[in-house]
């Protein structure tokens, strides 16, 4: 059975394809359209379908629209209530329901030939829950979903067993931890429904001095649900204009809300654990991208393992809807193989891109590749790393990443400069899986999807200062060389040179742009940002060579020397 999953209703439109129970492809529309988050999450845009990612999913599997058996859409208009009944204030909210009711027509326009497919509306939070429980490697789990909103709720607590999800309870709107956090994001001068992660980063600079007052507005109710009233934020701190300055009261407010959120999430997870006694908790929904809260849940809720869907935001609901529809129609579904579910190009295609761009490059023999890249990193060069299929979800996990040396504190600023973003934002360490326990604690290991924060061992804080956040933690990704051989070998070679089994990693994009997805995006970034080396699959492009080929002097401050004999090593060795 071929099931095309579609998320279009709120945030981060995306598509996913499940064939015979297997996740074949999943991608966010922004990676194709190059519009950050795909579209603004307003009712007027809810009709727009992720056409480019839908088409690509089918192409990837060699299918046409006529081959699709089921379209699974992650919103069920039957569950909708009017905004008034939900206590929301949006006179246009009903458009979402109307568009969802008419999605069949929009689908036929977007993908002619798809007329025969059965349309399956999957409730929004069930789609989130399936993206966690069905996509995880565990046959049984308790499942917790928290986000801004779905049809009428903002939460789901339930259990997955024997191929089906049992829903215990949902929290209806207007109570929503996601909407609370979004409202704070706006008050702090950031873009609502987009920049919530900046609030999380800012929180670690403040003290939670408003916590007591917040407890009156936000609390778990002891029955699996919660109350979340949005307070008048000006009681605590003035509305902030994002002018790049930072008042202590804003960081304190962010910290207070963050801590309160963590406390309530722990209460909700504990309630679920007491009810099920399960060993494993799976989670999704935009709130599950809050790594600090995830680690507290792991430590304090009673569950031994916590697995979070890497595309925990609404993008993941296309995948969840497809898995849920397949399961409901009797298909045994298999866990997702990893977060690398997007586009890829083979080595020859990548070389073709480089030749087409008239960029000089080398293709070292495989045994030299990691050594060459590690040389650049050890010499404090910044490396743009493009390898394999792109990631589904907001985290760069070694497929579209920007890498640098963790041993120099100023590299945090340097990475943020490349990306044109706020200096308070942390960058995250990638660490070799087998070395992680000696450096990082207080969070789950392995941690392959960068969804938890860990405490950095005292002895390591000065050794990897660029990777350590102001509060002594780091949001780590463990790298298993068996799963990511090229990246693993590179970090191993870097460790040989520096004694550090860690590199710093941030997503490969510049300010305001979606993550790099295709080779054109990678070349554009390389051409416009101070990056010393571009890794495109097995091919290496050195900034120094590009300038030499162009007959220009080398840029001042170039961190990396040309290794001798480079030309002699070049396999592909194309020149301009
Ligand atoms: Fe959602």
What does this protein look like?
Helix content is 34%, strand content 18%. The protein has a 7-stranded mixed β-sheet with strand order 19-15-20-14-13-21-22, with helices on both faces. The chain has 21 helices and 22 strands. A hairpin with an 8-residue loop joins β6 and β7. α8 crosses α10. The protein is an alpha/beta fold and 576 residues long. The chain has 3 domains: 149 residues, 2-Layer Sandwich (Nucleotidyltransferase, domain 5), CATH 3.30.420.40; 132 residues, ATPase, nucleotide binding domain (Nucleotidyltransferase, domain 5); 223 residues, Carbamoyltransferase, C-terminal domain (DHBP synthase). It starts with a strand and ends in a 7-residue tail after the last helix. The structure holds fe (ii) ion (FE2). The site of fe (ii) ion has 6 residues, from α6.
The number of helical runs is 21
Strand content: 15-25%
Task: Compute the separation of the termini in Å.
Answer: 48 Å
Biggest beta sheet summary: 7 strands, mixed
Low-confidence regions: 553-576
* Fraction of helical residues: 25-40%
The first-level CATH class name of the largest domain:
Alpha Beta
Characterize the overall form: globular
Work out the count of structural domains: 3
CATH architecture of the largest domain: Alpha-Beta Complex
Q: Care to count the β-strands? A: 22
**CATH H-tier superfamily of the largest domain:** Carbamoyltransferase, C-terminal domain
């Amino acid at each position: 059975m071929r099931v095309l999953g579609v998320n279009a209703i709120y945030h981060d439109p995306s598509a996913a394809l499940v064939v015979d129970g297997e996740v074949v492809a999943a991608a966010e529309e922004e990676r194709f359209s190059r519009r950050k988050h795909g579209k603004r999450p307003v009712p007027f845009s809810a009709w727009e379908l992720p056409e480019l990612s839908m088409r690509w999913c089918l192409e990837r599997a060699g299918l046409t629209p006529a081959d699709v058996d089921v379209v699974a859409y992650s919103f069920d208009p039957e569950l909708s209530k009017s905004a008034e009944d939900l206590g929301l204030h949006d006179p246009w909210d009903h458009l979402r329901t109307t568009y969802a009711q008419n999605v069949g027509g929009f689908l036929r326009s977007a993908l002619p030939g798809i007329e025969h497919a059965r349309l399956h509306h999957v409730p929004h939070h069930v789609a989130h829950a399936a993206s966690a429980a069905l996509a995880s490697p565990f046959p049984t789990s308790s499942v917790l979903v928290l986000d801004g909103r779905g049809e009428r709720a903002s939460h789901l607590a339930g259990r997955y067993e024997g191929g089906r999800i049992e829903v215990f309870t949902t929290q209806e709107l207007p109570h929503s931890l996601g909407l609370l956090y979004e409202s704070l994001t706006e008050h702090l001068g950031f873009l609502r429904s987009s920049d919530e992660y900046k609030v999380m980063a800012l929180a670690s600079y403040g003290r939670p001095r408003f916590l007591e007052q917040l407890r009156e507005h936000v609390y778990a109710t002891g029955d699996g649900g919660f109350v979340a009233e949005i307070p008048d934020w000006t009681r605590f701190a003035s509305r902030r204009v994002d002018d790049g300055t930072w008042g202590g009261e804003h960081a304190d407010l962010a910290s207070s809300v963050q801590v309160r959120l963590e406390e309530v999430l722990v209460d909700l997870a504990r309630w679920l654990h007491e009810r099920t006694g399960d060993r494993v908790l799976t989670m999704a929904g935009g709130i599950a991208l809050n790594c600090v809260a995830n680690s507290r849940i792991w430590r304090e809720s009673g569950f031994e393992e916590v697995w979070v869907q890497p595309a925990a935001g609404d993008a993941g609901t296309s995948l969840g809807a497809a898995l849920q529809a397949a399961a409901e129609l009797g298909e045994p579904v298999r866990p997702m193989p990893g977060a690398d579910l997007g586009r890829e190009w083979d080595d020859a295609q990548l070389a073709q891109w480089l030749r087409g761009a008239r960029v000089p490059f080398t293709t070292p023999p495989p045994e030299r590749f990691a050594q060459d890249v590690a040389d650049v990193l050890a010499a404090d060069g910044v490396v743009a790393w493009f390898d394999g299929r792109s990631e589904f979800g907001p985290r760069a996990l070694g497929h579209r990443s920007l890498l640098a040396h963790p041993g120099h504190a100023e590299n945090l600023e340097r990475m943020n400069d490349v990306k044109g973003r706020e200096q308070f934002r942390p960058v995250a360490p990638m660490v070799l899986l087998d070395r992680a326990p000696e450096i990082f604690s207080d969070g789950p290991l392995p941690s392959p999807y960068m969804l938890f924060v860990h405490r950095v061992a005292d002895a390591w804080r000065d050794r990897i200062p660029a990777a350590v956040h102001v509060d002594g933690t780091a949001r780590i990704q463990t790298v298993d060389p068996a799963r990511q051989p090229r990246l693993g070998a590179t970090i191993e070679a870097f460790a040989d040179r520096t004694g550090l089994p860690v590199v710093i990693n941030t997503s490969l994009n510049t300010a305001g742009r979606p993550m790099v997805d295709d080779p054109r995006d990678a070349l554009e970034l390389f051409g416009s940002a101070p990056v010393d080396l571009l890794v495109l699959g097995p091919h290496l492009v050195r900034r120094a060579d590009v300038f030499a080929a162009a007959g220009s002097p080398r840029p001042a401050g170039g961190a990396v020397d040309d290794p001798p004999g480079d030309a002699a090593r070049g396999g592909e060795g194309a020149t301009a």
